[in-house]
User: Which sequence fits this backbone?
């Protein structure tokens, strides 16, 4: 009879309402069944129905001698709460040793609470029991360390797993992508394919997230091809990742094709991804059109929809429109703007030169200004050469984070532009006293699926001789066309020849030169550069002329937006 109850419970668990579980439980009580496996299953069924009290009752009243399966069912029922830890300690005192599923459930709880210290102790125990290198426990450990922002620890665990399956690879790819290590995430994705391990929805979406962060077009195309061959391209989550990936890589036309193909099935997340792609281009008209189409489809815009709208207004320097949409968000949709929405509005005001109004909004909004807000204001002050206000914004940013190198660098540049060298020295002394290290500007370009990274004055590349020779030729040609260096980008009092050489060898210029000598794109096709910081005024000016010399489009994605240089102009309209 007990076998019948267990089979009945198992068959009906996923499809019947909670009262059926209770009916089976009642029948088991009236017939006096003592089958432990039946009650183990019942604990799981009750927990999946959010009936924790019933699950606890079954464990304490019907299982006099719980085994590891019983304890694991109870621990899993309490997943995400400290109760899981208490039951685990009771389990060890019983004494019963955990199995792989016990560890997996506990690591998930440690990540969600979070509880790093308990997770490390569990890791130690799993090592003693020789379970940490097993795929089931190993993948849970990788996820735990990744969610605790310890990607290196996660990779150590991954490296020790003896037989990595698709779950292990997916956990590592998602973990690295979520911890801003996109190059490593794509490397693991490549290793997964080289090992002939199958892809999952999670590994595919993680790889796409990494490609999006890098704006790596070729990687996005490779993953897209893999998605088509495995049938994942029709999945809404993967399709949304492709829309986001192509959008962030600047190919909004490709993103739009995928978007249109799956239009009837996409949810608000997919629409927001498409709007975000256009917003980075400063194409506010298309963003607004999509917003209206989204509503016509019966979807309700959320805070991310409005963030895309406001981002597009910020990138297009449209103050009145940004204010209108911010008001509409509150009045017409009942959505409270968040800090990011206000940051976009303040940025639009600042770029338009309304610095006092921008500061007033930042000080009176219903949020405490964060570092991003002060950084936007500081950048706007730099854009308009407002040295005194830049000093004030810089100090506020330094108060929040003394190690934020951007505060010191931007302030020093603005002061240098205004010839206030004594104050520039004061800023540099502050950096030295506080041991602040300046983040180096990095630019990268993708050539045949490989990402090449450059620093300012970088000579480590194996083709550096060709790169510098090509760059020298380019600079000479654009000087003949009328280019003159933007000296304000130099924050040091040095001779003009030294200034000139320093400006010539900025990382984005090296990346363009490498793109040309390596045939990164066929003739007539755009060169695509990504920069981790804001593109400087001198490189921006130089690229206008270089686009004329090489007779092709140059696309630069900096920390703020996309710049498309063609025939001596940029789509940003010199507003960035």
Assistant:
């Amino acid at each position: 009879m007990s076998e019948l109850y267990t089979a009945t419970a198992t068959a009906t668990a996923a499809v019947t309402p909670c009262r059926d579980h209770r009916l089976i439980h009642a029948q088991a009580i009236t017939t006096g069944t003592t089958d432990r496996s039946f009650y183990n299953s019942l604990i799981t069924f009750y927990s999946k129905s959010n009936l924790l009290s019933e699950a606890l009752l079954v464990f304490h009243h019907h299982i006099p001698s719980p085994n590891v399966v019983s304890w694991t069912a109870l621990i899993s029922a309490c997943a995400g709460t400290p109760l899981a830890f208490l039951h685990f300690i009771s389990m060890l005192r019983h004494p019963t040793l955990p199995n792989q599923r016990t560890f997996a459930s506990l690591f998930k709880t440690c990540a969600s609470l979070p509880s790093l210290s308990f997770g490390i102790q569990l890791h130690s125990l799993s090592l003693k029991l020789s379970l940490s290198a097993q795929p089931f426990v190993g993948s849970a450990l990788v996820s735990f360390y990744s969610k605790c922002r310890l990607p290196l620890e996660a990779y150590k665990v991954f490296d020790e797993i003896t037989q990595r399956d698709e779950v292990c690879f997916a956990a590592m790819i998602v973990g690295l992508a979520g911890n801003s290590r996109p190059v490593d995430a794509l490397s693991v994705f490549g290793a997964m394919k080289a090992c002939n391990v199958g892809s999952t929805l999670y590994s595919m979406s993680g790889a796409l997230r990494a490609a999006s962060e890098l704006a790596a077009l070729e990687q996005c195309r490779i993953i897209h091809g893999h998605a088509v061959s495995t049938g994942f391209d029709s999945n809404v989550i993967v399709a949304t990742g492709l829309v986001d990936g192509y959008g962030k890589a600047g190919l909004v036309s490709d993103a739009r094709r995928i978007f249109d193909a799956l239009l009837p099935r996409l949810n608000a997340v997919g629409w927001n991804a498409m709007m975000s792609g256009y917003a980075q281009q400063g194409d506010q008209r298309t963003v607004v059109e999509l917003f209206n189409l989204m509503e016509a489809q019966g979807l309700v815009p959320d805070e991310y929809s409005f963030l895309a709208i406001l981002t597009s207004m910020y990138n297009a320097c449209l103050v009145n429109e940004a204010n209108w949409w911010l008001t509409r968000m509150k009045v017409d949709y009942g959505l409270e703007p968040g800090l990011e929405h206000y940051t976009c509005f303040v940025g639009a005001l600042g770029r338009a030169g309304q610095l006092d109004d921008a500061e007033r909004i930042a000080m009176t909004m219903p949020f405490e200004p964060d570092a991003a807000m002060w950084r936007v204001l500081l950048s706007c002050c730099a854009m308009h050469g407002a040295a005194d206000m830049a000093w004030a914004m810089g100090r506020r940013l330094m108060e929040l984070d003394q190690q934020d190198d951007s505060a010191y660098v931007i302030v020093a540049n603005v002061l240098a532009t205004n010839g206030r060298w004594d104050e520039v020295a004061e800023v540099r002394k502050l950096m030295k006293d506080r041991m602040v290290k300046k983040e180096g500007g990095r630019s990268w370009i993708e050539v045949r699926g490989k990402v090449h990274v450059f620093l300012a004055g970088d000579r480590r590349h194996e083709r550096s001789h060709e790169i510098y020779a090509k760059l020298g030729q380019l600079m000479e040609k654009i000087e003949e066309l009328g280019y003159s260096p933007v000296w304000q980008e130099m924050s040091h009092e040095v001779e003009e020849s030294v200034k000139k050489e320093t400006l010539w060898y900025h990382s984005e210029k090296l990346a363009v030169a490498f793109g040309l000598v390596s045939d990164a794109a066929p003739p007539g096709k755009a060169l695509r550069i990504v920069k981790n910081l804001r593109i400087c005024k001198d490189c921006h000016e130089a690229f206008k002329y270089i686009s004329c010399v090489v007779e092709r489009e140059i696309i630069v994605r900096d920390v703020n937006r996309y710049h498309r240089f063609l025939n001596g102009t940029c789509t940003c309209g010199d507003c960035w």
Observations:
- Residues 166 and 196 are 10 Å apart (CA to CA).
